[in-house]
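Hi R.,

As promised on Friday, here is the backbone we talked about, encoded as structure tokens. Could you run it through your design pipeline when you get a chance and send me back a sequence?
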């Protein structure tokens, strides 16, 4: 008897959705139920050289075991995504915000851009924040 492997999560990429002072932001996501599936989604995203070379691929997910997040060098951005997922009650889903640094520091505006990217994803997928 052969063991069936579950299908890989479907990765949704909205691409670059906004720019601010040279920095570009993209948002992606997928339905996931485990950390292993999150890692698989991130690996698939980073298979694209543009995403692999991005300055930051921050993400968060609400799993049955609790919330997970990673800033990937963009301090505090993972928590912004996680809080938005909690407010929208979007469970078993990872949302990844990618930033390509444009040469100018954005200060607190970087959190607003992360929020804008997550809102765009939630809207595209039919979820309300």
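Update: got your reply. Pasting your designed sequence below so it's all in one thread:
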């Amino acid at each position: 008897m052969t063991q069936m492997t579950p299908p890989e999560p479907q990765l949704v990429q909205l691409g670059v959705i906004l720019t601010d002072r040279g920095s570009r932001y993209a948002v992606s996501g997928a339905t996931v139920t485990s950390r292993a599936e999150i890692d698989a989604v991130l690996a698939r995203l980073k298979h694209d050289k543009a995403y692999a070379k991005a300055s930051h691929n921050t993400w968060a997910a609400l799993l049955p075991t609790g919330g997970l997040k990673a800033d990937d060098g963009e301090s505090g951005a993972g928590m912004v995504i996680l809080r938005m997922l909690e407010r929208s009650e979007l469970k078993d889903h990872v949302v990844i915000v990618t930033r390509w640094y444009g040469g100018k520091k954005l200060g607190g505006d970087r959190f607003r851009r992360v929020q804008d990217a997550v809102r765009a994803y939630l809207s595209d997928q039919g979820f309300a924040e």
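One thing I noticed while checking it: The CA atoms of residues 95 and 111 lie 15 Å apart.

Thanks again,
M.
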